[in-house]
Design goal:
Blueprint: H1 2-13, H2 16-40, H3 57-73, E1 81-87, E2 92-95, E3 97-105, E4 110-118, E5 120-123, E6 126-129, E7 131-135, E8 139-146, H4 152-166, E9 173-177
Parallel strand pairs: 8-9
Antiparallel strand pairs: 1-8, 2-7, 3-4, 5-6
């Protein structure tokens, strides 16, 4: 029986086309194996178990405040600065879903059905929904207190810079002069 199978295998390998198909199949199996190996490797997640690209709201807010403070301090005449950021929303995530709808038309009635199934993936912390799109938190307003905040030109520069950086209206930004007493 073994000899017969070996002869059939040798006959299959005589053709270049068959060898190419066998090679492609072997490469596919190796790639599948490697993709599973990636799932076994430790991910770049933090000790809390979240994924490396997932950022908590407080981390996002602190990072944004820090970047804005650096930006304001870099403006000529602003001097020492403090920035406060307030949010109107936390942002949101849209999850991928499989949507199926069917309609059946009869003589006198129309029946329709709608089914929405969210796609689930196996993540580092168990099963989770597959995020299709996320939106950043919405900024309600920004308050800046800086040493140069008494100058109209500095206020205008800071307001225009923050407005452009965050994509918010100038009316949502307030700049004040920092107290000189400590």
């Amino acid at each position: 029986m073994k000899a017969k199978n070996m002869m059939q295998l040798k006959d299959l390998l005589k053709s270049k086309k068959n060898r190419l198909i066998l090679l492609i199949g072997a490469v596919g199996v190796v790639l599948l194996f490697l993709s599973e190996m990636v799932n076994w490797l430790p991910s770049g997640s933090d000790s809390s178990g979240g994924s490396a690209d997932t950022v908590s709201l407080s981390e996002w807010e602190e990072d944004m405040r820090s970047q804005l403070t650096e930006l304001v301090c870099a403006i000529d005449g602003a001097g020492k600065s403090m920035v406060m950021l307030t949010l109107a929303s936390d942002g949101e995530a849209s999850y991928a879903a499989d949507i199926r709808s069917e309609s059946a038309v009869g003589e006198r009635t129309t029946e329709s059905s709608y089914e929405k199934t969210y796609l689930i993936i196996d993540g580092a912390n168990g099963e989770t929904g597959l995020i299709q799109k996320t939106t950043a938190p919405e900024v309600r307003g920004v308050a800046v207190v800086c040493e140069g905040g008494g100058s109209a030109a500095v206020k205008r520069e800071i307001t225009e810079t923050i407005s452009a950086a965050l994509g918010i209206g100038r009316e949502k930004i307030y700049v004040a002069k920092m107290s000189t007493t400590e």
